[in-house]
Amino acid sequence: MTTQQVYSICGMCTVRCPIMAEVENGEVRFLQGTPHIPAMKGSICPRGAAGKALIRDHERLQAPIIREGRRGQGKWRKAGWDEALDEVAERLKAVMQQHGARSVAFSDRGGPFRDLHQAFVRGLGSPNYTNHDSSCARNVMHACKSLLGLGRKDVVYDFKNARHVVLQTRNIFEAINVQEVNNLGEALANGCKLTVIDIRATISAAKASRFLLVRPGSDYALNLAVIHELLMQKLYDAEYAARLIKDLDRLEEFVRAYTPEWAETETGIPAGEIRRFVRELSAAKPAVIWHPGWMTARYMDSFYVCRSIYIINALLGAIGAKGGLPFANKPGDFGRKGLKKLVDLVPKPEDRRADGVGWRYKHFDGGPGLAHLIYNAMESGEPYPIKAYIAYRHDPLMGFPDPDRLMQKFEKLDLLVSVSFTWSDTAWYSDVVLPLSPYLERESILACKNGLKPYFFVRRRAVAPRFDTRSDWEILCGLAKRMGIKELAFESVEALWEHQLKDTDVRPEDFDATGFVNLADAPKYRKSEDFKFPTPSGKIEIIHDKLESQGLASLKPYESPKRPPQGQFRLTFGRCALHTQGHTVNNPMLFEQMPENVLWINDTAAAALKIADGERVTVGRNGYSETIAAKVTPFLHPEAVFVVHGFGHRLPVESRAFGRGLAENRFMQGGLDIWDPAGGGIAMQEHFVTVSKIR
Ligand code: SF4
Questions:
Q1: What burial class does residue 18 get, using C-beta atoms within 10 Å of its C-beta: 0-12 exposed, 13-18 middle, 19+ buried?
Q2: What are the E-state strand segments in 593-695?
């Protein structure tokens, strides 16, 4: 029996860790993080380890299917690949003929392999590539751009060398990124302080040296007080600020009234504790990381929370610093050529985006735009109709608020296609479902990881597909061929890789030994002194002209968040280490570990309602209700209830997940319209529910 080691990329969440699969007789026997990247330490998280169970799962999608009944009825006809791709291509052509190429939209979940997706949509002639990000990280992205002129991934988090890490909108030990967790763990062992600011004592909070329980929705008040204290007590890095921050005087004037005493009344965090915290931060500068967040589609002011975090990092001199947020290097920073972009193979469409980004909303990053506004165009036909939609590994009916309302918008589509390796609510509602091979069964295009030490990496197929499923490139290149986009009609993944590697001095076989190719010998820290920020002034800009010209404030005065009406709670949600959004809850291995979510409720609030731990309760809003088991705990703010996101599946094809737990997005009626015009993110934690004992 021979054991083969295959280097590939995990696909169980959006982090995409480099992994090594041990394969024997066509079966994956063992999975681990690559031993060749020190920060991986050979480890993967529980979800990554469950990739084996995904392969064996008979309840995943197994062949292309075409809808026969009405949408969502669950009546399907099994199809061969040629038939399914022909069907999609013919229907796309019909839509394009009637409404123009711009009437096609495509969404994914972002990530390093999106170049092919963007190229495909562009090749069709549509500007409407989008992703899930308005329900995730758009606020932090726009906050970063508005201050630094950089994207959020143009700086990295140097956890390993940090002396104080603050997690406010990030729960790193549960919403796991393996390398970040390992690096932070190492830093903590070496004396790095960890402060966690949250409405709930998470696993991250359990590891913290300081936990600040903040009133839900009042984070901005705390951060304004921190800025106040840094500036008024001269605890910031004055030399860095003088050199690199523009409009510091405006900031100083703005935060003058936001004292720690004032913040105490808003947040519940004692003023003295805020002062001690700020002094500790100052003592650790510039090796401080106040993480600006990832999933920040939460409150109406989340964009300003993210903005205030970048401002704090700047005041501490942490942006560009070792142990802080150093600048990410690209291949060119080491004199190397980057991968050839597939998107450059096809011309950029001239049409304006259907979501208004770039023309109506000039302050937003063009990239993926805002999906919820593209959904509006499906219904309203404004600024023009969207009539065909391809959801690629994206389940908006689970990830966005108010799925019933969203289905009404999808109902206006002539064609809805899902590409997915598991069932999803959106796949179930689609006209055609194209089954993607799970990551251990598929190859993807090459990708580049920018960072202190950038590298190219490859996802290789560890085992042959068990069912009639295909790789992403096979599906999209197959469609491209049928749609007449000859530039993208690659016949093999090797041809794709060779194209991407043109002029790079790297060959496909260079990935054989480890699965990646380093583009530098050692990490490089670029000095902030030598760095010119890509903003009009070349500095970090507190006042962002594009925001101001849209009538939006760069420095927004604080507005106190609504207190829940009597007898109600703010509905909040988050992640755990065992599941990735909705797509792992039916995974046999992970289901066994965590079959359903529970409703966290504060113990004092529960006692007032006579609710005992473990008891089933009814959660309700606007006449809609569901039941769920209560977790009564002192470790949650009394104004909120909390659930882990991704549960409450109702698809009969998922026997394990069916009917287990609660989907919080069904309680967000009207939530598609609650979004922040400054940051672009949906505000998903602006909803209140009742909780009652079942009598
Ligand atoms: S964090 Fe876990 S699930 Fe995500 S890519 Fe890494 S190993 Fe896979």
A1: buried
A2: 599-602, 616-621, 624-633, 640-644, 688-693
Measured in whole angstroms, how far is the alpha carbon of residue 89 from the centre of its chain? 30
d(CA 357, CA 680): 10
* Residue in this structure with the two tokens 């109709």, named with its chain if needed: 385
H or E element in which residue 558 lies: none
Do 676 and 302 meet the contact criterion of CB atoms below 8 Å apart?
Answer: yes
- Reading the block at residue 35, the tokens are 């031993």
Q: Which amino acid is at 482?
A: R
Angle, nearest 10°, between helix axes 472-482 and 493-501? 90
Residue 256 burial (CB count, 10 A): 11
Place of tokens 């991968």: 339
Q: Which tokens sit at 82?
A: 């040629």
Closest CA to 446 of 152, 18, 126, 64: 18
Atom of ligand 1 nearest to the CA of 15: 5
The pTM of the whole model exceeds 0.85 = yes
For residue 177, the ligand 1 atom closest to its alpha carbon is 1
- Closest Cα to residue 646, out of 581, 601, 584? 581
Report the residue among 177, 459, 584 best suited for mutation to probe ligand 1: largest number of ligand atoms under 8 A from its CB.
Answer: 177
For the chain (length 695 residues), average pLDDT per consecutive 10?
A: 90 95 95 95 96 96 97 97 98 98 97 96 98 97 98 97 96 95 97 98 97 98 98 98 97 98 98 98 98 96 98 98 98 97 97 97 93 98 98 97 98 98 97 98 97 97 97 98 98 97 96 96 91 96 97 98 96 95 94 97 98 98 96 98 97 97 98 98 98 92
Angle subtended by helix axes 248-255 and 219-232, to nearest 10: 120
| Spatial contact of 482 and 94, defined as CB atoms under 8 Å apart | no
- Our answer on whether the CB atom of 178 is closer than 6 Å to any ligand 1 atom is yes
Q: How far is the CA of 171 from the centre of ligand 1 (A)?
A: 15
Q: CA torsion sign, 577 to 8 to 158 to 685?
A: negative
